[in-house]
Specification:
The chain has 235 residues and is of the alpha+beta class. The chain folds into two domains: 2-145, Trna Endonuclease, Chain: A, domain 1, CATH 3.40.1350.10; 149-234, Orthogonal Bundle (Arc Repressor Mutant, subunit A), CATH 1.10.10. The chain is 40% helix and 26% strand. The protein has helices spanning 15-28, 52-62, 118-132, 142-145, 149-164, 171-183, 189-196, 201-213, and strands spanning 2-5, 35-40, 45-49, 67-71, 75-81, 84-90, 92-96, 101-107, 136-141, 187-188, 217-219, 231-234. The radius of gyration is 20 Å and the shape is elongated. This is TnsA endonuclease N-terminal domain-containing protein.
Length: 235
């Protein structure tokens, strides 16, 4: 579940919520970007994102089955390279299933293409310093984040399903789905609704999306709009 906020008066917020938003407003500065208060099923944590592009990047991360952990807390890493201290701004820290770590910078635009420009020189310094420290540093731009609009649209909805079930244990629903998929080569979401009933379908759908997120299942969510015709199968 995601909530978008702009500078406006509204109902009183909880202390923790207010603290996170106040910090995010301060880091964002003056500008037209939205703030997003989101729940991450992958990290099982609430986060504040500082732009619509960070929201789309968040959705992309949550949908990537090669990622095992993530942090969306903005930070600045300070590393030494050839005797020089390098400041490295980081918008997300990603850990992949192979154990590798990537520090990500999320920015609008297509990225710098002039190898001789000061911006590219600075980026290359940051990449080299991070590599020396054993991590990758990568600039994620609007072009790379929004390349697959269908995937983003589908996973925005899938994340909402999982967020709605955040306080429920889905282990039993996942077990039942695995048993059903061992009997069938694949299942459509409509078949899952028919098998388990409309009343509990939301929990089975959340369980299915969670398994997709972990790479247990595969689906056609990158190619086709999410619907009752969406197909899932064991990897």
């Amino acid at each position: 579940m995601a909530t978008t906020l702009r500078n406006s008066r509204g109902p009183r917020l909880g202390t923790q919520f207010r603290g996170k938003l106040a910090a995010a407003y301060g880091q964002r500065g003056v500008g037209p970007n939205s703030l997003w208060y989101v729940y991450s099923p992958r990290s099982q944590t609430d986060w504040v994102l500082r732009s619509d592009l960070e929201w789309d990047h968040f959705v992309l991360v949550e949908s990537d089955p090669t990622i095992v952990s993530c942090s969306y807390e903005p930070a600045k890493q300070n590393l030494s390279l050839d005797g020089k201290m390098i400041d490295i701004p980081v918008d997300a820290i990603i850990t992949y299933s192979d154990g590798s770590v990537e520090w990500r910078r999320v920015r609008f635009g297509r990225g710098e293409s002039d190898e001789q420009s000061p911006a590219m020189h600075q980026l290359n310094e940051r990449i080299a310093a991070a590599k020396f420290a054993g991590v990758a540093y990568r600039l994620w731009t609007e072009e790379s984040i929004r390349r697959n609009a269908i995937r983003l649209a589908n996973w925005r909805r899938a994340i909402a399903w999982m967020a709605a079930a955040r306080d429920r244990s889905l282990a039993a629903y996942q077990d039942e789905l695995r048993q059903a998929l061992r009997s069938e080569s694949s299942l459509r979401l409509g078949q899952i609704e028919s098998m388990f009933g409309e009343a509990s379908f939301g929990l089975y759908a959340a369980a299915a999306f969670g398994e997709l997120q972990r790479g247990v299942y595969v689906s056609n969510l990158d190619e086709m709009p999410l619907s009752l015709h969406t197909v899932i199968q064991l990897r």
